């Protein structure tokens, strides 16, 4: 299982991946406001589906955000992921699964996102998210909503 991250200025290979990142399959913006009116500190979109081998580009549209794994729900054996603050990075996901990410300073405000790679059992993920220890209430609630949305055809 590999995840590859290519920063704009610096390529970081987290695991065994080699070569350039795939063309971005999706772009996730890091926002201080919205996209929903009244909402603050959010990834947009917060739910991304990509095929196995697909990539996500994280764009620091607003400053002060990063992207890190939600460890309690990270797929077993998957390498970690770290998109630094204010950095644009493209992350390639080479194994199927559900990859929940958070902004470190804003996870308590619900700044989380789900990257669904290939076919994944969203009911299983939703059950784990409902009971995982240590999740902030807003993060847990948002993960539940995202898992439900991902589970609908
Ligand atoms: Cu943030």
Automatic annotation (TrEMBL):
Listed GO CC annotations: periplasmic space
Primary gene name: azu
Principal cellular location given in the protein's record: periplasm
Gene3D superfamilies per record: Cupredoxins - blue copper proteins
Entry protein name: Putative pseudoazurin
Cellular localisation: Periplasm
Keywords per UniProt: Copper, Electron transport, Metal-binding, Periplasm, Signal, Transport
InterPro entries with a match to the protein in the record: Amicyanin/Pseudoazurin (IPR002386), BlueCu_1 (IPR000923), BlueCu_1_BS (IPR028871), Copper_blue_Plastocyanin (IPR001235), Cupredoxin (IPR008972)
GO MF terms held by the record: copper ion binding; electron transfer activity
Binding site for Cu cation: 65, 103, 106, 111
Co-factor requirement: Cu cation
Top-rank taxon, per record: Bacteria
Cofactor remark: Binds 1 copper ion per subunit.
Domain Blue (type 1) copper residue range list: 38-117
A Pfam family matched in the record: Copper-bind
Signal peptide coordinates: 1-21
